[in-house]
């Protein structure tokens, strides 16, 4: 019998707070929609059956309130989300268009509660990190990076990441946001585009791909100039290619920006074989980003995001939960309520495919050089003193 999990030698033990709300799997975007909240319960089932509950504290966060959501989102948008439902949609036809609610971001039963659970976990995780109750907080229901101040986008309605970062900014002068979802983290970048207190760093497929933003030359404006980094990728990026740019860029970001806390969005649609994505990362390659960011020993908020091949989403996030807690999960998937989803191999790993890597070494080197050049402009004390949360967004 292979070991269920083994300690990772040579690294300091981290106090981990893990957030899960069993209600999350009761929400459904609708038949045929790729976003399936059940994936989070599948991950939790692996987490529990691997025995990770022995290695961390598990919490059910208080759902975020409307008032808390309004720290970023407009009051009218939050009111709309709290009131609209499949049965009341007929009264909100104008608002559905105004707030971009429709096929990608449908109205479904419990929509507001779903948003409140996602945002509550990220905000409570940030608060526990800031009060030094833990070193790493994990919220796989979070990471919904496309949501804008007054608009739903890309399956996201409430931007839990922005709300979590605002909470961290109450205690930290500088917060670093890193996004390894296959899609550009546009909602988070937009929220902090004009400030030097938050550096957003997104690695994503770019070129005829949603949301279309996140070009290499998009670097922030005003005080925020050079505090938005974008690394545009092409199809088929491999573990080796990704590592060759991710680690040098993040290492340089840490040297120049020196954040007090880090938020890492771990969208798993960057994994090989994802239903929507077209990159070629293995689970170990995706997880090596988590391990690398963890190695800087900063308060770390780890969030979910995209990911549409459910069996692989749950494999990867369970494995990364283990890494956060300082253990490597064994390759044999333990019995769990979703066991049949993991056949025919019933192994934990997500392997890469033989698809072509369209990111040549020359392309990656050129882009890396430009990104590192942008970073040469970063450094020195922030231009603003500590502020209340809401006015942080009015830089
Ligand atoms: C697809 C936008 C991308 O399929 C959203 O791609 C990315 C969210 C993310 C796709 C689909 C897309 N939307 N961000 O991971 O990190 C371009 N939308 C879609 C919506 C409903 C649906 C099928 C596809 O089900 C249907 F309504 F057709 F039944
Ligand atoms: Zn995505």
Could you explain the architecture of this structure?
- The chain has 395 residues and is of the alpha/beta class.
- It has one domain (5-379): Arginase, Chain A, CATH 3.40.800.
- The chain has 12 helices and 10 strands.
- Helix 9 (283-294) links the parallel strand 8 (261-265) and strand 9.
- Helix 1 (38-49) packs across helix 10 and helix 9 (283-294) packs parallel to helix 10.
- The structure holds ligand EL8 and zinc ion (ZN).
Q: Point out poorly predicted stretches.
A: none
Query: What is the terminal-to-terminal distance?
Result: 57 Å
What about the largest sheet? 8 strands, parallel
The rough form would be described as globular
Please tally the β strands and state the result. Answer: 10
- Name every ligand kind in the structure: ligand EL8, zinc ion
Brief overview, please?
With 395 residues, this protein is α/β, with parallel strands linked by helices. The chain has helices at residues 38-49, 66-69, 75-83, 93-98, 111-130, 160-168, 186-191, 239-257, 283-294, 310-324, 361-375, 389-392, and strands spanning 5-7, 16-19, 57-59, 136-139, 175-179, 198-205, 228-233, 261-265, 300-303, 327-329.
Topology:
Blueprint: E1 5-7, E2 16-19, H1 38-49, E3 57-59, H2 66-69, H3 75-83, H4 93-98, H5 111-130, E4 136-139, H6 160-168, E5 175-179, H7 186-191, E6 198-205, E7 228-233, H8 239-257, E8 261-265, H9 283-294, E9 300-303, H10 310-324, E10 327-329, H11 361-375, H12 389-392
Parallel strand pairs: 2-3, 2-4, 4-9, 5-6, 5-8, 6-7, 8-9
Antiparallel strand pairs: 1-10
Helix pairs in contact: 1-10, 5-6, 8-9, 8-11, 9-10
The structure holds ligand EL8 and zinc ion (ZN).
